[in-house]
Amino acid sequence: MPNRSVVVTTTLFAALFVAALTGCTAPDSEAVETSAAERPVATPSSEPTAAAEPVCRRPGGDGTISTGEPLNVELYSEMHDYGPREGANGTVAYAPDGTLASYVVAPGDHDEAILERLCVGPYSLDALNAVRRGSVHSVDPTSQAYLTPLYAGDTLNLNPYTITSVGDVNGEVRSYEASFILPPQR
Question: Could you say which residues form the signal peptide (predicted)?
Fold first, then answer.
């Protein structure tokens, strides 16, 4: 017959081991159990629930716009207006089909906040504005197009099909050639 202290020790060790593996913890001394009759019952609400915000993947931030290649319009499928915020209080306009069309810069707006608000990468937004504002995707003999600052009242293009018809810099419309092949323009 085995020694009783060995059996007790082994049993105790096994119980502790099982408790550790199952994540058992000591009961909370302040926890109060309620009966089913006391528990709140979920009821349908007459107020609409907010739809889950789309997940922003900020396309184009990795240099996906290729020189001499057609612009991949799928880069803009995740664009969404997440609403005004510090540094991005401008006005968004929508196209008749419900897609984003343009953004009018407000005083104090800056690039990074606008990119975050619209869920777009910097290279993608630059491509949309290459013709009328100038960007790293513009063919510019002076190589200065990419230095375009933001002015309150500027219009930024947000649609790949209106690159040649939407956008300005401080009220001036520029006319650069894009370094990529444009999709059909409206």
Answer: 1-20
Amino acid (1-letter code) at residue 65: I
Please write the tens of the pLDDT for every residue from 159-174: 999 999 999 999 999 9
Q: Does this model's pTM top 0.85?
A: no
Q: How far apart are CA 99 and CA 76, in angstroms?
A: 10
Task: Locate 59 and state its tokens.
Answer: 């396309």
